[in-house]
Design a protein that fits this description.
This protein is an alpha/beta fold. The protein contains 4 helices and 7 strands, in the order E-H-E-E-H-E-E-E-H-E-H. It has one domain: Alpha/beta knot, CATH 3.40.1280.10. Helix content is 28%, strand content 22%. Helix 1 links the parallel strand 1 and strand 2.
């Protein structure tokens, strides 16, 4: 029997991602790091690419037309964690990941929308002077989650 305290899940996705390659790399990392699902919000590119490990068949992918559509379908009990260079964001190094959450990343050129920042339950940031590539940022967040869980 699994203790409810041990149960959890996470999903990860991007808002208005710039390139299909970013989605492909994030998707592969998500599969490797144990994500339950991946998603996109908006539609700045036509197709998904870089799926060298056939992640599309191994993990659910959701697409939402806009932030409101995404937010209305946020899994019950999940905390929304925005990844953004914002004055209200806490450094990833000190962040305690929620057991059930959805990580939302913005594109490098625009970041998260104001609505996404406002609706996020938590905001985390990297201690870097410039933004990171969205797939790299997502991979780091998932790695941090796994390492903190492992050594807890």
């Amino acid at each position: 029997m699994i203790d409810n305290l041990e149960q959890g899940f996470f999903g990860i996705g991007m808002q208005n991602g710039k390139t299909p390659e970013n989605l492909g790399v994030l998707w592969r990392s998500a599969q490797n790091m144990g994500a339950s699902f991946i998603f996109t919000i908006g539609n700045r590119y036509a197709k998904q690419a870089c799926d060298t490990h056939k992640a599309v068949g191994a993990m659910p992918y959701f697409h939402y037309k806009d932030f409101e559509d995404f937010y209305a379908h946020l899994p019950k009990g999940a905390m929304l964690v925005g990844v953004e260079l914002d004055e209200k964001a806490v450094p990833l190094e000190t962040f305690e990941h929620p057991r059930r959450c959805v990580y939302l990343l913005g594109a490098e050129d625009h970041g998260l929308s104001n609505k996404a920042i406002e609706k996020s339950h938590h905001l985390v940031k990297f201690d870097t002077p410039l933004s990171l590539n969205v797939a790299v940022a997502g991979s780091i967040v998932m790695y941090d989650r796994n390492m903190k869980k492992k050594f807890k």
